[in-house]
Write a structure and sequence with these properties.
- The chain is 39% helix and 21% strand.
- The chain contains two helices and six strands, in the order H-H-E-E-E-E-E-E.
Length: 197
């Protein structure tokens, strides 16, 4: 009898476990179906940016770009106003009284240029180098060949001037300078005496 009871108990346990497993499987399937059904519902209702938010974002971006452009333009204008403006007065060659001692032509900031020289300005370069030359005491070896795209040197010929510029490699002249600024020292100067070497 005991054997028979054990067998019945075993059968009952097996049936209970079987029913439990079926129930668990059924619950898993129902749960999985609910999850699958909920996903499309979530995707339909989830909009990361509403139309109002998108419009606000677009307006802020456009404003930021415009502010950047205006800031850059303003800085450019301020830089030109304060420093690198060129002050070249319209001087006619026939009117030397228009130029006065102390007048400055070209770039206003003399710190821009590393090199400077003082002498008497003449038209014509040195052995084909430069458009003008600066005669200095000490003879031909001290003469500076000059060129300039900033200052019209023709208007300052036969005057004593101080030139500021950048030295370039010369092939024939002892010194070749690109002039960016000229200070007039003496409008009635005479050429220095050149010695033969």
């Amino acid at each position: 009898m005991q054997l028979q009871e054990n067998q019945e108990n075993q059968e009952n346990r097996d049936k209970t476990e079987s029913l439990q497993q079926e129930n668990d499987l059924h619950l898993d399937n129902v749960s999985h179906e609910n999850q699958v059904d909920e996903m499309p519902h979530l995707r339909q209702n989830q909009d990361p940016m509403s139309k109002k938010t998108k419009k606000t974002f677009l307006i802020i971006c456009v404003f930021a770009v415009l502010a950047g452009i205006l800031t850059g333009f303003g800085a450019f204008q301020l830089k030109n106003k304060n420093g690198n403006s060129q002050n070249m007065e319209n001087v006619t060659v026939g009117d030397p009284n228009k130029v006065k001692n102390g007048d400055i032509f070209g770039v206003q900031d003399k710190e821009t240029f590393a090199d400077n020289a003082t002498g008497y300005l003449e038209k014509g370069g040195v052995d084909g180098e430069g458009s003008h030359k600066l005669l200095r005491e000490g003879g031909n070896s001290q003469t500076v060949a000059l060129t300039s795209s900033v200052v019209d040197l023709d208007k300052l010929v036969e005057m004593e001037v101080k030139v500021y510029g950048e030295t370039h490699k010369a092939e024939k002249a002892g010194w070749f300078m690109d002039v960016g600024r000229v200070e007039v020292i003496n409008t009635e100067a005479e050429a220095p005496i050149q010695t033969l070497e």
